[in-house]
Amino acid sequence: MQSFLLEKLLPVTEEEKRLLAGGDLERKLYTADREFVVSGMRLSNGKEIAVRAHTRFTSFPQHKHNYAETMIVLSGQITHVIGGRRFSLGAGDILFMNRHVTHAVERAGEGDIGVNLIVSDSFLNRLAERMSSTVFSPFIEENAKGNGSPSCLVFRTAGVPQLENLEENMLCEITAKEQDTQILSDTFALLLTCLSKKQDDLLLFSNTILSKEERRRAAVMSYVRDNYREGTPSDLAEKLALSPTYLSHLVTDLFGDTLNRLLTKEKLRHAALLLAETELSVEQIYYSVGFDSSSYFHRAFRKIYGVKPLDYRRQNKAKKEKD
User: Fold this and answer.
1) CB under 8 Å to 42, separation ≥6 — which residues?
2) pTM of whole model > 0.70?
3) Could you say which of 8, 44, 271, 273 would form a disulfide bridge with 175 (CB–CB 3.0 to 4.6 Å)?
């Protein structure tokens, strides 16, 4: 972690000065409820994600949130108690808690620096499809339920440059004078994607265990997302150390579809995004996502989306102008 970024979070805040002077934790700063349910009041004006530095020099008693919370520890150590279990998080550790988790936080010292990300339900719900068949899938699913089960995940990212860079990018945005919430949201979504791809190596704890079938679904979908342009059944079979015949039956059993059709659908999904968000020509788009034939692309696109590619672009443009 870049030292100049940590230096921005190291100074003692006014709230922390009161705590150092012997004051008590002011619950009204966090909730108006009689029960200690921390409010996502920072998610105002349509914000999907907000941040605050973790308050040091005090312990937080048992409490919940009315939103999903993510804590990233930047230096030192911060200890959470969840369901009677202590989680001592060090630099580079990330804790995800859905809104049904009850937890306490032990007193943090001056060098124990962490940031809390306040994540809206609507934002998580939009990530649901992207996170399908990953360890985040049940986390998001339970968060969306009114009486869902508590779900928490702990990852260790120290020493993984790709993830450290994403965390630094988020911290740069967090400490900027004027935050760009869109960049923050996009970076957070990318962080979840990267963690899900490395979950076998970096996941320290999950109170939701993926079954063998779910892990295989995750492996197939990860391959489809990463290799939709040039992926093949034989390549995936080799990566999973399975015979092509067994892989074919496995994918059909898991998804009710062939791998080639899953790859085609992913190509079309990316094509639809490019049609809606860029001015690239249809020819440029179908080549860029891996189609060789214009006629095949048009037939496949219309079969999935019900309209021609250019009509899809016009409809999206009209919708944006209306909004």
Assistant:
1) 50, 51, 52, 118
2) no
3) 8
Report the DSSP pairing between strands 49-53 and 152-156: unpaired
Burial class (CB in 10 A: 0-12, 13-18, 19+), 126: middle
Q: Which residues of the chain have pLDDT under 70?
A: 1-5, 32-35, 40-46, 179, 209-211, 214, 323
- Closest by CA to 269, choosing from 315, 319, 309, is 309
C-alpha span between 253 and 233 (Å, rounded)? 15
Residues 30-52 pLDDT 10s: 776 666 777 766 666 667 888 88
What does the alpha-carbon distance between residue 314 and residue 140 come to, in Å, rounded to a whole number? 33
pLDDT at position 260: 95
CA 295-282-323 angle, to 5 degrees, is 125
* Cα–Cα distance for residue pair 259/12, rounded to 1 Å: 55
